[in-house]
Amino acid sequence: MSMATSSYFNCWIIFGLAVAMIVAPLAEARAFFVFGDSLVDSGNNNYLATTARADAPPYGIDYPTRRPTGRFSNGLNIPDIISEQIGQSQPPLPYLNPELTGQKLFVGANFASAGIGILNDTGIQFINIIRMFRQLEYFEEYQHRVQAFIGEQKTRQLVNKALVLITVGGNDFVNNYYLVPFSARSRQFSLPDYVKYLISEYRKLLMRLYKLGARRVLVTGTGPMGCVPAELAMRSTNGGCSAELQRAAALYNPQLVQMLQGLNREIGKNVFIAANTQQMHMDFISDPQAYGFTTSKIACCGQGPNNGLGLCTVLSNLCPDRDHYAFWDPFHPSEKANRITVQQIMSGSTQYMTPMNLSTLLALDSFTN
Ligand SMILES: *[C@@H]1O[C@H](CO)[C@@H](O)[C@H](O)[C@H]1NC(C)=O
Ligand SMILES: *[C@@H]1O[C@H](CO)[C@@H](O)[C@H](O)[C@H]1NC(C)=O
Questions:
Q1: How many domains does the chain have?
Q2: Which family, according to the similarity comment (predicted)?
Q3: Which ligand is nearest to the CA of 203?
Q4: Which tens digits make up the pLDDT trace of 88-102?
């Protein structure tokens, strides 16, 4: 072979490798596991006797089927959009969905349950919800079910290569410490001590997740909790965000990042990736127009001041165009806002993602897998 032809072939090999690296994650998407609260619940609570549910209209009004699914969104939620981004053709089903059997198990599973927190005593008013320790037990049970199909070693590989998302913590403030004046936790702890306690309990849960085989875990912080329409309606004194909940978010989020960095150092690998959801949401709260929203203070669906009181039901006010609202209901972002958040998770700078964004992580993994 002449020099010219051989370098011609080399070019094709390099080109082929580049194509393979781009296509591989699409052709054979990794599994995806989701843990946490209503921000990521895709319908587990539909199967439970609980008041924390989103299985009635107008939830799901912009979902492909135009029907409620249990997602706390007008359409897609953050796990749906991440699943899209990593090349899955279907997002993982809720773990309690009876259709989660056979081949569908290999896509992953969503263990999240609206109303839960880091602590067991968070969300007790919702009665029957899947608390964090139970979500992790279900993850273990899931692995046994997959082992029955592909054996122990392949199951471990599937779990090790999977992407994991965990979103929890907000309810430990709004549905525990600040749920009622003089709550048990607020009498037990000052806010800074409560935050320290939450972080130390969260660390244990994440360590358990690691021991169960998770190796790539996206961990979101809380949003700017004091600025959601519900808090603007209930606590705001001057039309601005609730100062107390903003103080809680400001204490909690940086300590969460530090804890994750500590875990990564201890493990010796970047297992835990922090997503600064506080900053991401703050961006469209401070300048909604820049993101195509007409407002970030009024929920699309609700009643009372800011549409921030009570639940979103068929009797609520409902905005005609959901894409113009940062908040779908008094607590949860619209699909449009979720898309912006996932965009930042994918390609945000280190101001948003620590130590790296998801596209960098996916590129790294396509080299090593
Ligand atoms: C939560 O409850 C479970 C089951 O009762 C228990 O095993 C676990 O230790 C509890 N977690 C905390 C932080 O108390
Ligand atoms: C994040 O992702 C984008 C797009 O893939 C990339 O160009 C950028 O350099 C990344 N940013 C950081 C800080 O890693």
A1: 1
A2: Belongs to the 'GDSL' lipolytic enzyme family.
A3: 1
A4: 999 999 999 999 999
